Amino acid sequence: MSCTIEKILTDAKTLLDRLREHDAAAESLVDQSAALHRRVAAMRDAGTVLPDQEIESQIDRICEMGEVMRKAVQVDDNQFCKIQEKLAQLELENKELRELLSISSESLQVRKENSVDPASQPIK
User: Fold this and answer.
1) Which of 13, 22, 43, 100 could serve as a FRET partner for 120 with CA atoms 20 to 30 Å apart?
2) What CA–CA distance (Å, rounded) separates 105 from 97?
3) What is the pTM of this model?
4) d(CA 123, CA 1)
5) How many CA atoms lie within 13 A of 79 on its CB side?
6) What's the pLDDT score for residue 82?
7) CB atoms closer than 10 angstroms to residue 15
8) How far apart (Å, rounded) are the C-alpha atoms in residues 102 and 105?
9) Tell me: the pLDDT tens digits for 10-58?
10) pLDDT digits (tens, 9 = 90+) for 62-91
């Protein structure tokens, strides 16, 4: 598996977008739950009562949706952490490779200067 910084950045952006979508979905669930609770309270105030079975069904459905969202966010968080670790590792490796390249370039430059330097040439 070849990982490039661009691929990791793209994956991180995708995960961030997905986290935002999950966050929006979670907010929607909270809003739906609040609306359901207001509806039940309004019906109680008006003397109308939803059957307990329907209330339980709605509550169970909302709880299931919330659990699915929590699991999805957890999976995305885990993937995001793995990508961040890999990105940090690649950045460190890139820095070390740049240092090695710099040392190698300096060494080549010194060799070129020594081979071109007229003072280092033997006198004939």
Assistant:
1) 100
2) 12
3) 0.45
4) 57
5) 17
6) 84
7) 19
8) 5
9) 888 888 888 888 888 888 887 887 888 788 777 777 766 667 777 778 7
10) 888 888 888 888 888 888 888 888 888 888
